[in-house]
Amino acid sequence: MAFSVPYLGHGVGLRTKHFPHLWEGTARADWFEAISENFMIRGGRPLAALEKARETAPLVLHGVSLSLGSTDPLNIPYLEDLQALIRRCEPAWVSDHLCWGSVGGHYAHDLLPLPYTEEALVHVVERVQAIQDRLGRQILIENVSSYLTFSPSTMSEWEFLTEIAERADCGILLDVNNIYVSAANHGFAAEQYIAGVPADRVGQIHLAGHADMGTYLFDTHDGPVITSVWELYRLAVRHCGRVSTLIEWDDKIPEFDLLCAEAERAREIEMTELGQSYAKSA
Amino acid sequence: MLSLRELQLNFFHSIASIPGGGNANFSPGLVQVVEGRDKLGPEERLNIYAQMYYARLIEVLREDFSRVAAVLGCERFDRLVRAYLAHHPSTHPSLRYLGRHFAAFLAAWPEAASLPFLSDLARLEWARLEVFDAPDVEPLRVEHLHGFSPDEWPSLKFQLIPAFHALQSAWPVHEIWAAATDETSADRSCERREKTAVRIWREGFAVYHSKMDATEQAALTAVQAGEPFAGICATLASLVPTEEAAPMMGSLLLRWLEDGILVNHKA
């Protein structure tokens, strides 16, 4: 069993605020990540922007509602919509989160934490395998920021993530900011987390900003990446090698140039750590 | 010990069942398996998720129904959304559909009894959203009609683009929409009973709406019913003097073509 996705360089999230740059031809980025659900629509400006983005640079799809860990049956209409979107925009890969967000037919629209137990492990592995079979492709699963842990857990989050990736034969989207946030909230060593993740399964890295709420860190995606997270990224690059990296900035979204400057900073770190970069800017 | 299923059901119920805030309703069985650490106990940690649940969904509906929110003001709108979510928790993976029952719920919400136009304002806002991402089609333009001979015109049929919606209200809902930009500056003079028909459509990527008079409403109803051009003309002729019907039809057709709301003519 193996996992492999192409190396795309240092990309940015595709956000409504920046759509005009697509038509102006000034949306210069190595690649774009689109939130799948935002484009599971029938027509209009967002789909036209997605088409423009695809003409401009490689594209990947990142979902928030697959609800991988849910004990509800898989949402087949959702998977059919996702498959239709995949056919439409031919993403380099598809990802979603290692969490659950729906139960009893109701959606929380949040990335809710799982207990790290054998029961949850077996359940999620089955779901990932079923999804990959239906989509006819491997997916990447992302570690989420969390604000609580469950006492029945029998393994660490990185052991849980690794076991799922190995057993389900899927990839990992390593969110370095989420590791930093959860490490602070639960008192584990972020460095140990990164060292414990199988480098050959990591197909993408996320970087983002967060907020210090006093008693906990909160994953806000509303500001620049902080210095400590950049340092953790440096460590992740050393551990994983060249991995396509994306800046997530979803609230208080800056001008496109500032977003790209964050992506450039990631590129510089990769060059410093690995000595070269093969990313191709448009 | 809770099964994974029980844990998830308890968790969702705990974070989604406290419309007024607070953490009194957290399931004891769930609290027992949540680890406390440092300054945050299990309840405080669960409460982060409960607060996020409401904050996120309120924000989504505030964006989708910004004019309703402006009329109600922040506190009342928050109360409305919390009550709405208690009756209509999201059942779709996309937040795009969270507000699909909002207008109907608002019509029966006791706190809005003094604002009877509000539900129609919500219907207009929802219609604009529906039109925003409706399927794309190439609309019919004036030049497309040049090829038809006079003999073909009576049997010509038109269809409306998918990004079209017609709405009837007992209020001048388009005026209320225009005035409802924020709570303090809302023009109350438009909150009067006045039977109104509005059409909502998308041209390119832009969404528009405008009031229809009785003749346009009748003619568009005939188009929607699949009437041929002769039938649409007959509808108009039944409403206005015969000599006015033909120029009126020409004027309406031109406006519809300019707005790009017609598609697919067929003989």
Order of helices and strands of chain B: HHHHHHHHEEHEEHHHE
H/E element sequence of chain A:
EHEHEHEEEHEHEHHEEEHEH
Question: Which percent range fits the helix content of chain B?
Answer: 40-55%
The shape of chain B, in one word, is: elongated
Summarize the structure in words:
The complex is a heterodimer of chains A (282) and B (267). Chain A is α/β, with parallel strands linked by helices and 282 residues long. Chain A has nine helices and twelve strands. Chain A has an eight-stranded parallel beta barrel with strand order 1-2-3-4-7-8-9-12, surrounded by five helices. In chain A, α4 runs parallel beside α5 and α7 runs parallel beside α8. The longest helix of chain A is centred in the last third of the chain and has 19 residues. The two termini of chain A are 34 Å apart. The C terminus of chain A is likely disordered. Chain B is mainly alpha-helical and 267 residues long. In chain B, 50% of the residues lie in helices and 11% in strands. Chain B contains twelve helices and five strands. In chain B, the strands form two sheets. A three-stranded antiparallel β-sheet of chain B has the order 2-3-4. In chain B, β3 and β4 form a beta hairpin. In chain B, α1 packs across α3 and α10 packs antiparallel against α11. The longest helix of chain B has 23 residues. The model of chain B has no long low-confidence stretch (mean pLDDT 93). The interface between A and B is large, with 45 and 49 residues.
